[in-house]
Design a protein that fits this description.
This protein is α/β, with parallel strands linked by helices and 214 residues long. It has 9 helices and 8 strands. The protein has an 8-stranded parallel barrel with strand order 1-2-3-4-5-6-7-8, surrounded by 5 helices.
């Protein structure tokens, strides 16, 4: 199974017409996990996009996952799948993808995280830290929830919600270590520069703290 413990910057992105140039740019800039998160387009289009993204990610030795569908992950040759609270269970995902697949699970509350600890997930996500357009109507959980979650497991906990180059230093100082980014890169006019700036801020912040072994 791929080890995500040292992976710090996880990009969630929907389908893009410029994916063949956008994705290499952000990977060059320092993204080290990628997920195709597409909620609208038909599965046939998602499969085509996923195969392209998998190929590019693997050229950079970066894990590639898809959202929601282990069947799509299997067909695309992805490294795994990320599921939410209302999606297929982690156990079912593993039955489809096997024990070595990456399977991530979203959580949004202490109760959900406590329950998630009984699942055979590779990693968890916690958040959103603040309400975002990506999850309209879902209130922000704040940093405290993410810190409590991180303390309960040795698995990586990737925090979501509004992470960018301006706030990642403060988030690292607060104790967080793994980050999901969406708009800071997907809406950037210059994705390579944006990814480099975010990664630079993240690495500089991490260099000042003690990283506990996992």
């Amino acid at each position: 199974m791929l080890d995500l413990a040292t992976r710090r910057l996880y990009l969630c992105v929907g389908q893009r017409d410029d994916m063949s140039s956008f994705l290499p740019a952000v990977l060059t800039g320092g993204v080290d996990v990628v997920q195709l998160r597409e909620k609208v387009r038909p599965l046939t289009e998602q499969l085509q996009a996923a195969r392209l993204m998998r190929s590019i990610c693997h050229e950079f030795n970066v894990p590639f996952l898809v959202n929601d569908s282990p069947e799509l992950a299997l067909d695309a040759g992805a490294d795994g799948v990320h599921v939410g609270q209302e999606d297929l269970s982690v156990t079912s995902c593993r039955q489809i993808l096997g024990s070595e697949a990456l399977v991530g699970l979203s959580t949004h509350s202490d109760d959900e995280f406590e329950a998630a600890l009984y699942e055979d997930a590779t990693y968890f996500s916690a958040g959103p830290l603040v309400e975002t357009p990506t999850k309209l109507g879902r209130p922000g959980t704040g940093v405290g929830y993410a810190l409590r979650s991180q303390a309960k497991t040795r698995a990586p906990v990737f925090v979501t919600g509004g992470v960018n180059a301006s706030n990642v230093t403060d988030l690292v100082s607060a104790g967080l270590r793994h980050f999901v980014v969406v708009r800071a890169l997907s809406e950037a006019d210059h994705p390579l520069d944006a990814a480099r700036a975010l990664r630079r801020a993240l690495d500089e912040a991490l260099s000042t703290v003690t990283i506990e072994p996992t």
